[in-house]
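User: Predict the full complex structure for these chains.
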Amino acid sequence: MKAKIESDLAGAGHATMQDVARHAGVSLKSVSRVVNREPHVSEKLRMKVEAAIADLNYIPDIAARSLAGSRTFIIGLLFDNPSPNYTMKLQAGVYRACTEHGYHLRIDNVDSSCSPAVLESRLDAIVRNSRCDGFVLTPPLTDNPQVLDFFDARGVRYVRIAPSVEVDRSPGVLIDDEAAAGSVARYLWDLGHRRFGLVTGPVEHGAAAKRRAGFLDMLSGLGLTEPVAEAAGGFSFEGGITAGQQLLAAQHKPTAIFATNDDSAAGVMVACSQAGVAVPADLSLCGFDDSWIAKSVWPYLTTISQPIEEMGHAAATFLLDRRDSQPALRTLQFHLVQRDSVAAPAQEKSTSVA
Amino acid sequence: MKAKIESDLAGAGHATMQDVARHAGVSLKSVSRVVNREPHVSEKLRMKVEAAIADLNYIPDIAARSLAGSRTFIIGLLFDNPSPNYTMKLQAGVYRACTEHGYHLRIDNVDSSCSPAVLESRLDAIVRNSRCDGFVLTPPLTDNPQVLDFFDARGVRYVRIAPSVEVDRSPGVLIDDEAAAGSVARYLWDLGHRRFGLVTGPVEHGAAAKRRAGFLDMLSGLGLTEPVAEAAGGFSFEGGITAGQQLLAAQHKPTAIFATNDDSAAGVMVACSQAGVAVPADLSLCGFDDSWIAKSVWPYLTTISQPIEEMGHAAATFLLDRRDSQPALRTLQFHLVQRDSVAAPAQEKSTSVA
DNA sequence: ATGCCGATTGGCAACGCTGTCAAGATTGCG
DNA sequence: CGCAATCTTGACAGCGTTGCCAATCGGCAT
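Assistant: Here is the predicted structure of the four-chain assembly.
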């Protein structure tokens, strides 16, 4: 079984760099140079080596590469409490970037709700054991100071998805929640709506606050004087139902409701159907996220689409392309997806504004 | 910077097995034995080594381990066309099993809709490059003959999630779809329902056929003579709407509808609200999967819960525990989740059965 | 005591690749 | 035309572990 000596194909196992070198008649190191696209390689040599690589169907061994070199060719995706839709899209984007760069994707789950000490050791285990070239942090890890401190202290590269506190602290990929909510306001306003309801999210959620502010600011900028009715929806379906009931019980029902995420918007829709309020005939409803639920309700929800897959891709690309870790932010474009839950308000005597 | 010679802590880097050996005053190989729980290690030596490991906070280097040994300590999770909810749960289960065994989870996405040649090379790249100790296959990869052939030919270990064709071919984890659908039938029957509607899934989907058969067989076994009205829902929300409209348009409306997955059940619910049919007062509705949407509709959907996370865990555990790869199946328990979309049928003159 | 056998322990060569450094090839310039 | 500067290429020593084989240590039958 030691007949490996003269054969190119080294018996049963797969071709190694050694095999390629022999086949091409060059040194081991030269093959390494070609594989790693290092400079100072003549065209001729590169061609020879590439031909040999193709001939032998050579694929570098990751384990050996990471042992010998400093790179591991692995990107870690960290999440906590994953919301299926969001996380899967993100993961798809990160994965795509990884394959584009010949990297691999490793998944790790971190429960940030545990004690700082436990969290610390958990992170330690992940970082040391994984030896990743970089991590992508998803919310709520994104905004967890302890996690950030940990990575910074270790000098481990990472990119934050949708950071909302200390935004400039490290590289991140995000959308402008405020502007997005503003665009919803403007859209509804332009349609003629003047009486609004707002379903807010959890107070501790950074994006929730921005969406609320963006919506309210735009409206007052547009000249709205009447106050916007608010109800807490907690970003959940059930919360949305409650909030919807509240908003619908008011003396002057709003003609349009903006729920700051899709789940609560779906809840509002239930409240409407319970109250006999037709969407969008009697009430326009707008969500945020373009999550999967937006097309699992009837009528389909008009909502803000975040390019989540794109954000994952951008984050990983950040890690992979820019070896310098200067803090830098990448803001991606949201867009308003017009579906069926929004219409102009029903005719009333309410053409009040000058 | 080469002052590593006498120190235990080897400067800036992390402790290596060498450091542990020195600290414990034993040989390198002995540390390896302890770490790998190999036999022929005296209690005394093991204690010493373990103490040293704890002292130095030693964590083995995966890259070195996989390079030197035959194991890689990585499990690959392969999916295609991931449905967010299902996949995330599965992934969570697989991940849990991995951490329990000190393994890592690597994700790979395979598009099985491409040409066989492309698929072949894609699989080749994944298997060779990943060098995983085993793969978990999710539907529809689970039932793709080419994928199965590929892995079998390479002698790569894998476990199938929810196999439905050639079930005995390789290790797999599944539930009894037929029995689950049967339990729905019995549940509705016991409540007094005698006029049924069935929303079917895609014909090419193995589980869809089983659910239909299980439902129908149970009903006829129970003595139902009236035919069950069927409509194609294609496992989708929109398909469910159409199917629901169809079913509801019939002369004798069914008093209970079984949609073979939750998405289509949600669609049926929309059809109901459009038709002014109250759920569950006028019509009972039952889904299948207990996916996330089951609690994103109102009323909450009564459905069959598959232990998806558990299935992922079981699959990975299979890979990790049983080093022998005898085909073996593990059937997990489903259960009927009673929520709010099912009730006894409204009183009619229809107490027909003897 | 003597010799032998199995249980322990250690030594050392891979594993496949990259980093460092030096040697050879080529070019430019005085 | 010679020598330095630069570009290309190669040799070789690890990276941190495991696998294999040899050495050592007890204990037990003789």
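Confidence is low (pLDDT under 50) at residues 1-12, 350-354 of chain A.
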